[in-house]
Amino acid sequence: MKNPKIPNRLINEKSPYLLQHAYNPVDWHPWNEEAFAKAKTEDKPIFLSIGYSTCHWCHVMERESFEDNEVAELLNRDFVAIKVDREERPDIDNIYMQVCQALVGHGGWPLTIFMTPEKKPFFAATYIPKNNRQGALGLMELLPRIIELWQNDRQRIEDASQSLVDAMNREERVPSSTLEKNIFSQTLAYLLHNFDQEWGGFTSAPKFPSPHTIYYLLRHYYFFQDEEALQMVEKTLLAMYQGGIYDHIGGGFARYSTDRQWLVPHFEKMLYDNALLSLAYLEAYQITGKKIYAKVAREIFTYILRDMTSPEGGFYSAQDADSEGVEGKYYVWTPQEIKAALGEEKGDYFCNLYGITETGNFEGKSIPHLLELPDPEEWAGLDELKKTLLKSRKQRIPPHLDDKILSSWNGMMIASLSYGARILNEPQYLAAASRAADFILAKMRRSDGRLLARYRDGEALYPAYALDYATIIWALLELYSTSFNSRYLKIAQELNKDLLRYFWDENIGGLFFYGSDAEQLFTRPKEGYDGAMPSDNSVAALNFLRLGRLTGDPELVEKAEETVNAFAQVINRYPTGFTYLLITGLYLQQPSREIVIVGEKEHRDTQAMLDTINHRFLPNTVVLLKDPLDQEIGEIAPFVQEMTEINGQATAYICQNFTCQQPTTDIKEMESLLT
Question: Quick check: 7 pLDDT over 50?
Fold first, then answer.
């Protein structure tokens, strides 16, 4: 049992995950030099545990082991125990997760690493039970074995750890190359091969949403008019929405589905998933015109603005899977609970539509899921029923909220809200996006302009990682494209310069994971793989291309190409792992289009031109507004200085593939040039 009166060192931390462990009997240290100095002085190995506050199996391991006095006694006697929040320190997590995957063949959280005081790993695992279970070694047996090796066969440990370090540093030096000519048809063929024709998605269970694959397929359809690409998108988006992975009562998606059918989720909700998925549904709406996709995006935004927005305007990180120590308890229903809230007749209707039965589909209760899509005329009535059920659900004990604010995840949400404001014509989304961006720029930048990664309880900390920079720049580009406030474009330029200064690899191109001014770990990885989120290099490459074309800077376009080439060798072998990065590769091979609208932003004819552009899916197009009242835009994009209104009317200048058309004041003529 834990002693609630005696906190350990973690009590002084801001991370919700570390604070969850602040009353463990384990003598936890945060990751700092004091911990490593203690390990060296006392000649002890380090027990490193990495997780995050909404991680179900992290909670299980804490209850079984870290709150247990027997385990704590062994750890405190023989090891220096360090606890890390992977969301605060993704650099540490990235490196040691690679170690785990190399040694074990898979990864996950909680991540358990044994390492030397020099931070060199020699043993890795994920969740470890307290005692031996089904052939798996428990901590009570493993810890004495590790310490016996440490004391009696140190050379073996040092040789193994050094070999791992050497191997990881060798792997990071892959030379640049170029994409194969048939890479896009090859990517589609692989995705078709992996596609679940019955339920959508691109894996068997567990099944992750992978919204960046949706983005790629929509662009593949746009450029090549391949119907199979669009069919895969629509099948997946509709199946996910109908499934239990979607919270039909409160809005928003859970992290992943444990089954093929998207029915039983891992119930935690992450900000980044909902940011990226809302954007996928918005793009699907834009390209198909089907209102169901806009509806899903709106419901996600409603959830984010209601439950995941701080008073200061930033967006919180996640909601737990567990409530009262039980996974999913907050989200499941019985028919009796539904009827108590809605009445017999409406309750029956709702249960029949959302598959809520006496037997249930999850531990005796039911996860709401749509057995079939309701007709649009039913939407308004269903929304009222859901409001009633949401009010009823709020009487339950809610899951834990991780209320830290991460630059990277906020960047994704700001980008999606900005996009939603633009194509749905919803000013409230732009207001929320602008407020969040202004909060980050005010509270999460140092006085020298260096972006910071995490904010909580009044404290901003940790030099931002490449993904933080990339997503905030992305957010600013989307904010500019919606508001045409040139301030956002100027700050995007500033941050992009810092990104290249701190992260760019001058030898072979691409961005390192953490900055040259940050803590230097035993390796400096470079991430191109698009996993649950697009990688920093993938997001940055597209930013380079867009920013280069918006400002007329050819060097940034070259940076986009260099970034793709830095990962081309591995993309050619495994293209489906790099679908977001392939978007930039696709754009580089397709005709580009730049549009400059000259006219006062508030004038009706200017707005009419912008609305015409916004309602179209134009992924290879960048749009600038030259407002005569905006003196800054000519400095940011010098090529627009000579462009003027014709006869005092809003005027469109359209350049396609380095050839400019005659400027026009006629919207229909402009439309024909866009087709």
Answer: yes
